[in-house]
Design brief:
Helix content is about 35%, strand content about 20%.
Length: about 325
């Protein structure tokens, strides 16, 4: 057997009915008999054997859905972003399935036993932490990833420099596979400190673009963004994220929210926690960053960022069309 969030990732499950879709199975020529039974995300599926004999197997969740559950984003309008090599932002839309018209994915967030599914809008960002890795390993401008914050703090702003890390094209909300990365606004004034700052700011602006798409797709007003993942240890980055999205950014005490979410779901299924409110009480704030940027400056910088993004588009097409030298 499997459960709804993992089944939804196969492209074979109808996310409306939460069952295997006969049209899709026919299209891909996959016999229904070989597929597992779809269950809710939590409930006693069976018990372990061997060293785990008798231990109930009580929950299963997809990676990012588990992080959403671990961040206790149980209400419509609550969102989390996991900042790793790439970043994944999920917004809980409740029992309403919101079909995106602004470049996002509609996914099943989780399903409690005996209840309708909870849905989410998801925006994936390809390059965030891996941009810091490139800055370290590809350019050799820092020795460790943690040094980028120190280097970025040597300057007050980006000096008019913007980095758009479209190394493999642009993901949500643009979905432009032909895009390639650019460093825009270079002058002799730019130092490695400005480049470090532009690297961090790229993650924040990409977060802003995804959140803007979510706001356009739904009528839900985000009150705060819960964050997790390795990049959240960078205080300058988290402050800049709060500044550009104009809502508080909150990091929990437990940073490994994927594992935590799976544990929460299993504990709920076996009665270790009685309800979702009990899980809420178990979640605690470790750090919070409040927006502090002037709105006019924020929007001016966002326009500059979007102009830099436009420079990435169609890059591979232009190279292919160039005459041979």
């Amino acid at each position: 057997m499997t459960e709804v969030t993992n089944a939804s990732r196969t492209l074979l499950m109808n996310i409306h009915t939460l069952s295997w879709d006969s049209h899709l199975l026919s299209f891909f020529d996959i016999p229904a008999a070989i597929l597992p039974e779809i269950q809710p995300s939590m409930g006693t599926y069976g018990t372990g054997r061997g060293p785990l004999a008798g231990v109930p197997i009580a929950a299963a969740l997809g990676d990012q859905q588990a992080a959403l559950f671990g961040q206790t984003c149980f209400a419509a309008g609550e969102a989390k972003c996991t900042y790793g090599t790439g970043s994944f932002l999920l917004l809980n839309t409740g029992h309403e399935l919101v079909s995106s018209t602004h470049g996002l994915l509609t996914t099943v967030a989780y399903q409690l036993a005996g209840e309708p599914a909870v849905y989410a809008l998801e925006g994936s960002i390809a390059i965030t932490g891996s941009l810091v890795q490139w800055f370290r390993d590809g350019l050799g401008l820092i020795q460790t990833a943690a040094e980028i914050e120190t280097l970025a703090r040597t300057v007050e702003d980006n000096g008019g420099c913007y980095i758009v890390p479209a190394f493999y094209g642009l993901f949500a909300p643009r979905w432009r596979p032909e895009a390639r990365g650019v460093i825009a606004g270079l002058t002799s004034y730019i130092t490695k400190g400005h480049l470090a700052r532009a690297v961090l700011e790229a993650t924040a602006w990409q977060t802003r673009e995804v959140l803007d798409a979510m706001n356009a797709d739904s009528s839900l007003a985000l009150q705060a963004l819960k964050v997790d993942g390795g990049m959240t240890s960078d205080n300058l980055l988290m402050q800049f994220v709060a500044d550009v999205i104009d809502v508080p950014v909150v990091r929990p005490m437990v940073a490994e929210t994927v594992s935590l979410g799976a544990g929460y779901a299993a504990g709920l299924a076996v009665g270790y926690w009685s309800d979702l409110e009990g899980l809420h009480r178990n979640w605690h704030v470790a750090a919070e960053w409040l927006p502090a940027m002037d709105s006019r400056h924020r929007e001016a910088e966002f326009r500059n960022w979007k102009h830099a993004v436009e420079l990435t588009l169609g890059w591979t097409h232009r190279l292919a069309d160039s005459p041979a030298q």
